[in-house]
Amino acid sequence: MSGKAITDKPMRILVTGVNGQLGHDIMNELDARGHVAVGTDITEEYRGMQDGSAVCEAPYVQLDLTDEKAVRRAIRLIRPQAVMHPAAWTAVDKAEEPELKEKVMAINGAAPAYLAKACAGIGAKMLHISTDYVFDGQGEEPWKPDCKEYAPLSVYGESKLAGELAVAANLEKHFIVRIAWAFGKNGQNFVKTMLKLAENHQELRVVRDQIGTPTYTRDLARLLADMIESDRYGYYHATNEGGYISWADFAREIFRQAEKDVKVIPVTTEEYGLSAAARPFNSRLDKSKLVRAGFTPLPDWQDALHRYLQEIEVIH
Three-state DSSP class for 297? Predict the structure, then answer.
């Protein structure tokens, strides 16, 4: 195991958003390590994989994270030693609809505050997932995890920043981990979108002036499990290694590995067409703090993509 483990004993860990792609992988990683992972989500039952197949056998509690009393009650009853919080509103464009802003802020801003306060009440630690959208996405320098030059361009970014600040303000024992361009088995993502479009397109226009690095949630789950087993608290950035690329570069590699004969036409964000929410041009995240803290970085994104395409049975 990488990082500084502070206990060899299994922990009771509450995981939010277990029906999503990162929550799904976190649950399976914790289960494989022998921890008692208790899943939560808004659905009445643990749905498991979105295709209906089962995941690890684990306790499950239905929980509305925007209900402060329900959160406090659940934390008191379950008494986890740690909470891992990947659940979030992630529909970036839909978040811009005026009638939804209050709901987005409740899910991404208020819910993390409720969890952090409840964790403080029982002495538990918390790992909160955030995003590069808390910055303005300008320039070419990678964003450092302890940078405080926040300037979100969208409701989504604003809401995620509110969640970050709430966790840091209400709980000393916190990890805040910013990620970008996530892809995993249990959810929709850029890789699946490109593969779907490849079924009936010979050419695709893909943005070339938004730069970052993909994050395979299965790799990320291993790192997050290492973190929660440690006491190296603070802000971190975590994506796969392999350098910074554009969405067009990513699409080309997807089609190359999947052996799809699709021509990628690189275009600017302006040429592609404006979306409801402003997208950051600079999603470069500086991950060097991971090594300084004793954690093992994620593998290169090309290797991660290869393993992912095997996982979803596109290649063998």
Answer: coil
The answer to whether residue 277 scores a pLDDT higher than 60 is yes
For tokens 């397109």, name the residue: 201
- In this predicted model, what pLDDT tens digit does every residue of 22-44 receive, in sequence order? 999 999 999 999 999 999 999 98
SS3 286: coil
Band (45; pLDDT cuts 50, 70, 90): confident
Share of the chain above pLDDT 90, in %: 91
CA angle 143, 236, 14 (to 5 degrees): 140
CATH code of the domain in which 147 resides: 3.40.50.720
Residues 141 and 284 sit within 8 Å (Cβ to Cβ): yes
CB atoms closer than 10 angstroms to residue 195 = 17
Catalytic residue among 133, 156, 216, 235: 156
Find all residues with CB under 8 Å of 183, minimum gap 6, and list them.
21, 189, 190, 191, 192, 214, 215, 216, 217, 308
Please say whether the beta carbons of 224 and 177 come within 8 A. Answer: yes
Distance separating alpha carbons of residues 155 and 164, to the nearest angstrom:
14
Domain tally for the chain? 1
Could you confirm whether 235 is annotated as catalytic? no
Structural domain that includes position 126: 12-189+214-243+285-299
The predicted-structure confidence for 287-301, as pLDDT tens digits, reads as follows 999 999 999 999 999
Q: How far apart are CA 218 and CA 161, in angstroms?
A: 25
